[in-house]
Design a protein that fits this description.
seven-stranded parallel beta sheet, 413 residues, 17% strand, globular, 34% helix, alpha/beta
Length: 413
C-alpha cells in the first residue's frame, strides 16, 4: 500500500482508555511506514506527532460553554454533568494544515468541545475518508455516553433520564438526535465498533441501524504484558498466599464497575470454600473516594490504590491467577486484556465486549449477569483450571495485535 497521511482526532493523548488506544494506533501506523499525527484537545506527552488544538483560552471557553449549556438543560445537575455531551461547540479542525494534507481522518473520542457536529459536517465535506471509532455509545444516542438500561435510543431519544425535570419528548436529547440524524444522512462516515457488542447496540439503534459498521478491536501492546517479570510485585503478606485474585478499575466505586457483585462472590467463597480463602488474596487497584468501600468484604484482601506505572501493574498481573471483572457494561475491557496477556484467567460478566476477549470455559469464565454465586463458581473454575499462561498471552497477541489492527483501519480507506 502506498504511503498514507492519517490524522487521528482525540480529546486526550494519553488520559483515558480511548485516548491510549488511539495513541497506540498512531504508533502502529508509523511502524507500517505511514504518516500519522494526533490532533488533541489536551496534550500531556512530548511526542512531536501529537498536536494540541487552539489556545488555552479558546479551549477553556468552549469547554465551559458546552458544560454550561448542559447544566441549563438538566436542572443544574452536576452529578451527571459528564455523562452526556452535546457537541454544540468544538475546535476548528478542518482548517488545520495537517487535516488539509491528510488522506484520511480517523475520529475517535472527540467529545467535551473537541469536535462539534457542525465541524464534523465541515470535515466530511472536504471529501476525505472519515472513519469514526465508537469507544462508547455516544454516536448512537442523543446525548449520553452510555444508555445503560434506557432504551430511548432505539427510537429517537427524548424523555432523557439524565435531564431530570427538563426531560420531555422534545428535550435536549431529542434535539441532538435530530442533528446527528441530519449529519449521518448527508455524509459517508464509516463507523467502527471496538467490539461486537458495540456493533450490535449500534445496529439496534435508530441512528445507526442502516449503517455499515466494522468491528475492529483496540490495539494492545502484548509485549509490555508478558507472562514473566524480572521483578516481582511486592505485597507485605505475599508469601502467605498461593492465589492472587485481582480486580482493577480507574474508579473502583463507579457503580458501573459492579464491585458489590465481586465482594458478594468473594464472601460466598469465604463461607463455602474456606480452603480457597485461606490460600488466596483479592488485590484491588484503582481510585476510590470511599473509606468504607471494603468494610463488608471478609475475604482476605488488599487495596493498592491507583497503579499508574504499567511496569508495576505488569509485576502484579504476572503473579495473578484470576483477573476479575464484574462490570455491568464494558465496551471491551482493557483490564481483562492486560491480565490475560500476563497469563491470568479472566472471570467476568458478558454484558459487553468481554465475549470478544473470553471463550467461556476455554480461556476464561463468563458468569451469569449480576449473579455473584456464578461469579464465585467462575473463580473456583479458574483456579482449578490452571490454564497455560503462555497460551493465554498468545490468544491476546493474536486478537489484539497493533499492526494487524492498523492494517484493518487502512483497508477502510
Amino acid at each position: 500500500m502506498e504511503k498514507k497521511r492519517i490524522v487521528l482526532l482525540s480529546h486526550n493523548d494519553l488520559l483515558g482508555g480511548a485516548a491510549i488506544v488511539t495513541y497506540r494506533l498512531m504508533k502502529a501506523l508509523h511502524e507500517l511506514g505511514h504518516e500519522a499525527d494526533m490532533l488533541v484537545f489536551n496534550k500531556t506527552c512530548d511526542n512531536p506527532h501529537v498536536h494540541q488544538l487552539g489556545t488555552r483560552p479558546v479551549r477553556g471557553w468552549r469547554f465551559i460553554s458546552e458544560r454550561a449549556g448542559i447544566m441549563m438543560r438538566n436542572g443544574f445537575n452536576r452529578r451527571d454533568l459528564f455523562k452526556i455531551s452535546t457537541a454544540s461547540t468544538g475546535m476548528n479542525i478542518h482548517r488545520h494544515p495537517l487535516v488539509k494534507k491528510a488522506d484520511a481522518i480517523f475520529v475517535n473520542w472527540v467529545n467535551q468541545s473537541t469536535v462539534s457536529l457542525k465541524e464534523m459536517q465541515r470535515i466530511c465535506d472536504m471529501g476525505k475518508p472519515v472513519i469514526w471509532t465508537m469507544h462508547d455509545m455516544w454516536c448512537m444516542t442523543g446525548i449520553c455516553h452510555h444508555a445503560y438500561s434506557c432504551s430511548n435510543y432505539l427510537q429517537q431519544c427524548g424523555d432523557c433520564p439524565y435531564l431530570g425535570p427538563k426531560a420531555a419528548p422534545g428535550d435536549l436529547s431529542h434535539k441532538i438526535w435530530l442533528k446527528k440524524k441530519k449529519l449521518y444522512d448527508s455524509t459517508d462516515i464509516r463507523f467502527v465498533a471496538v467490539s461486537n457488542w458495540v456493533k450490535q447496540c449500534a445496529h439496534n439503534s435508530s441512528l445507526l441501524r442502516d449503517k455499515d459498521i466494522t468491528v475492529i478491536h483496540n490495539a494492545f501492546p502484548s509485549d509490555l504484558f508478558r507472562t514473566y517479570s524480572d521483578k516481582p510485585f511486592t505485597i507485605e503478606t505475599r508469601n502467605r498466599f498461593k492465589n492472587i485474585i485481582a480486580f482493577g478499575a480507574a474508579k473502583l466505586d463507579d457503580p458501573v464497575k459492579g464491585l458489590t457483585y465481586a465482594i458478594d462472590a468473594l464472601n460466598i467463597l469465604m463461607n463455602e470454600a474456606p480452603e480457597i480463602a485461606a490460600g488466596s488474596v483479592a488485590v484491588f487497584f484503582g481510585k476510590t473516594d470511599r473509606d468504607d468501600l471494603f468494610h463488608k468484604l471478609r475475604f482476605p484482601h488488599l487495596a493498592c490504590g491507583t497503579i499508574n506505572d504499567h511496569t508495576v501493574l505488569h509485576q502484579l498481573l504476572v503473579q495473578t491467577k484470576v483477573i476479575l471483572s464484574t462490570s455491568l457494561y464494558e465496551t471491551l475491557g482493557g483490564t481483562l486484556i492486560e491480565g490475560m496477556s500476563a497469563g491470568a484467567t479472566p472471570v467476568s460478566f458478558g454484558r459487553g465486549g468481554q465475549t470478544d476477549i473470553i471463550d467461556h470455559k476455554v480461556t476464561g469464565y463468563i458468569a451469569e449477569y449480576c449473579n455473584p454465586r456464578d461469579v464465585a463458581e467462575g473463580i473456583k473454575w479458574a483456579l482449578a483450571a490452571n490454564l497455560d499462561r503462555e497460551k493465554q498471552h498468545e490468544t491476546i497477541l493474536r486478537r489484539f495485535n497493533a499492526n494487524d489492527i492498523a492494517l484493518r483501519y487502512l483497508s477502510l480507506i
